[in-house]
Each structure stands twice: as structure tokens, then as C-alpha cells.
Write a structure and sequence with these properties.
By secondary structure, the chain is an alpha+beta fold. It has helices at residues 4-13, 44-56, 105-114, 130-135, 197-214, 234-240, 269-287, and strands at 16-22, 34-40, 62-64, 70-72, 81-83, 90-93, 96-100, 117-118, 139-140, 143-144, 149-155, 161-165, 184-191, 193-194, 221-224, 247-248, 251-253, 260-263, 296-298. The radius of gyration is 19 Å and the shape is globular.
Length: 300
Amino acid sequence: MEYREIKEICEKYGAECKENIPLAPFTSFKIGGCCPIMVSPNSVDCLKELAAEFWAENTEFRVLGKGSNLLVSDKGISSPVISLAAMNKAAADGERISCGAGASLTGLCLLAEENGLSGLEFAYGIPGSAGGAVYMNAGAYGGEIKDVITGCTYVNAEGRLITIAAADMELSYRHSFFSGKNYIIAKIGLLLKKGARNAIKKKMEEHMSARKEKQPLEYPSAGSTFKRPQGDFAGRLIENAGLKGFSVGGAQVSEKHCGFVINKGGATFNDVKNLITAVREKVAENSGILLETEVEIWEQ
């Protein structure tokens, strides 16, 4: 595809457009080659027009939030990337927060705390974006996005803006209406409850302390590598299979939390992918449970 039309749309809105961009710096794993072009829409109208142009040209594209649940091939990808980083505005109004899909979860938590709004404390420290959190119904410490979301606006496969209520979003464990679909979440609405700022802040700090104590935040990773199997925990199954500290190249099963695969230093895409495969096979052999990966993988 010629990207002339894409560049013209970006120029029209004053949006960023760059070619041959390495993706590793945009992922928490710090792994990945280049994409042919990355566009960063700065408004819903810009996003809608860019998506419509890609679809009109039958050009497959990828959508990038904060890259915190993503593993990208060292060879890069042939698809253009729509980064939602510039769609990060957020505002509180009464007990409601509205935000762009690119807003960071941690930033939203701080906004909620500043306005004395409770209900989002569970997300403090999750390194993802609001859009990514909705896409996978992110959760921690007994809370999930489905508990606080009222609905969102997205661009569908025909390039139209659609508003959907939370009740229709099929939100369940690490799943939503958007899972596996090439729709683009643009705006999100949350409904919280009034609370005491000091209590909200205390709970956020407790969650962050627990993350630092139990999770290998000192190393690049994509967070929990595997979904929680019904009635058990991936980390426990992996440790019971004797895989604590197990390595392939620069990739390692964290010794701090076996549910995390980390980039111990210089890990390649194949290191991580092969380690994930080995872990799944060993756990299945040991327990009869085949772990399902939570990390999204981008290849050619």
C-alpha cells in the first residue's frame, strides 16, 4: 500500500506519522523489530478517518496501546500500526470519568484519587492503557474493569463510530466483546463512587507495595504471561512443574513470581516464545492443564 493518503490525513489533523519505526521501545518486554509506518491519531475524527482509509484499501493494521501485554517479532511486522498514545485525555465530572483509549490506567487512578472517587484502586500500577484494559477486561486484587465501566465508543469495521453499553460488552475473565475483533476502542466512560481521598490513596499504595513485593517489576515483561486456569493459579502450576528460574536464552521464568516470563537481558522474540511453549508443555505433562497465554503476539 502507498501511504500517501495516510500521511495526508495525519497532516490534516496535525497527527504524528512516522515510517520504519522500531517497536521494541513501545513494548514493556523491550523486544521487537520495525513496522512500516506508525500513525498516532490525536482525535476520534482522525482515528475514524485513518481506520476507514486502511479498511478501504484492504490493509491489515495493528492497534497499539501501551504495549504492556505484547510480544513482537524481532523481524518486525509488515502491517502499519495505529498508536493510541495521543488519545490520552481524561476528565472527571461528578462520579464519572471519561477518557481516551490511550489514557494510562495509573493516570486514571491518580485522577480518581484527586477527585475523591473510589472503585479504580485495583488498577493502580497496572502498566496498560484504558483501551487495552477494556479489550481484555483487566483486573487485579478482586477488581475488574467490568465493575466500573459504563460503556465505550469504538470504530467498527465499516469505519463508523458505535457506542456500546457495558451490559453489551460481554465482559468476563480477560475477555470482552472486542476480543479477536479488528475494532478500535476510542473513548471510555467509567462510573465510580465518592470516597475519602486518604482511604483511596492508602489502598492504592497498598496495591503498589504488593506489586513491588510479589512481582518482578525490575525486569521487562508483559505482566502475567498466562491466564488463570479455572480453580488454580498459573504461577503455582509452573512452580510445581519445577520451572522456577527456567531459562531459554535471555528469557526466564521469574524466580520472584513464576507466572511472569521476564527479559533477564537481551532476550529475543524466539527466546520468549520458545520458553512459553516449553512451560505450557511441561505444565500440561505435570498437571494435565494446558495453560492459555495472556500475552498478545505480533508476527509477520
